[in-house]
Amino acid sequence: xxxxxEDVIAEDGWxxxxxxxxxxxxxxxxxxxxxxxxxxEPLRVGDIPLYQRDSGQxxxxxxxxxxxxxxxxxxxxxxxxxxxxxxxxxxxxLTGIVRNGKTYPVEATQEYILRNxxxxxxxxxxxxxxxxxxxxxxxxxxxxxxxxxAREHMLNSAVAFALEKVMPLPHAFEQAQTKAIRKLAxxxxxxxxxxxELEKAGIWYLPLKGILLKDDYPESAMREMNxxxxxxxxxxxxxxxxxxxxxxxxxxxxxEYNHDIYAKPPTLExxxxxxxxxxxxxxxxxxxxxxxxxxxxxxxxxxxxxxMTNEDxxxxxxxxxxxxxxxxxxxxxxxLDVYVFLxxxxxxxxxxxxxxxxxxxxxxxxxxxxxxxxKAFTGAELHEQEQKMLDYLILSGSSGTCENQEYHRWxxxxxxxxxxxxxRRFIKSxxxxxxxxxxxxxxxxARHKALYPLLLVWRPIKGVFxxxxxxLTEYKxxxxxxxxxxx
Length: 487
Description:
By secondary structure, this protein is α+β, with helices and mostly antiparallel strands. The chain is built from 20 helices and 16 strands. Strands 1, 2, 3, 4, 8 and 9 form a 6-stranded antiparallel β-sheet that branches. It has a 5-stranded mixed β-sheet with strand order 10-11-14-13-12.
């Protein structure tokens, strides 16, 4: 008869069992062996105890708060917090994790991710610098987590190119590399078909981002892409749609943003840009790049193909990166793009760049990103602020995070200020709405301005009945917003 966990701990002082579930992912995975020991000293926030609910269910979650002798527990991969756990529920505490025959320490989620990210950056550096990885270092790496991180940052193919120099590729990395090579070939073939149709119709076009950046990598397939971006003559968007649909693409977005999206199963997606940036969200960048066609050069491929100078392309890549960086976050691939591009184009006109960077108001960002890229992918030591910026990029992933997006949204709402005065000003603006807001949402009141005082009373009452939780949540977000030091 199997003994209960609490009986084993009471008799032996420790136990080992196999994990089931993903609530503590990525630190703990399905099938990992978990080493649980008896609690020998007071538990702290961050510890991961094994406890038993009143229902009899065993749970292994992290302590996120201790108050009045009660623990609040939360799975690293869960949103809900469980409160009211006491010492009587606690059976033991996690002290080790065994995966693939190796024992790993118990860490905070961020510590775990950042530690493994160092190995990821090392492998990517070997790939783009065409160096052979140290076999002894590889023996200590957690390839399961490196694969997950690399996938988040779209760097698995680059890692595969590094690993294949010294070892048979693990299946997951081999699959990622094969997929990247195949996808690159499909995009190349399909893009040729599309551009020929654009040329037949007399529509000029400008390839963007990864289409060009891949050529600066030692192997083009090191630079993974989900889609291809092409700027086209925005007076011909109806014709572009006719061409894309005629080639078997489904239009998934049209006239909703600054680019239209066309997809063809199983993997092809093209973003056909009207402008490089949307006017309503990024007016400064929109205005700067609005007439970019006046700066474009005729490409070598045809009379309708256009290309930027290396300097203007670098400015576009930086501005695009900064847009993501200050919205939801931007990942390691963006940093790698800068490193690879600058190495391939060492003779950029810095005087021109410096002047244009000032116009775009990203001078400081470019300098930080450029220096960090040089250091991160050559193994140089980082100072504290550079490490913070690198950590932000690592934890953002290639698409950013909801947490970053939420923070930057409130930072913008409050004008980058967390003072009481700024918060009062924002709350006041939500009560005493602008004329533009009234005209858009309450046109009848806009035409009869005498009703405005009634609107001030009616809106809060309506809000209480229709979305009270939303109002309370917004109030709490404003109240607790705290400005972070910029990474």
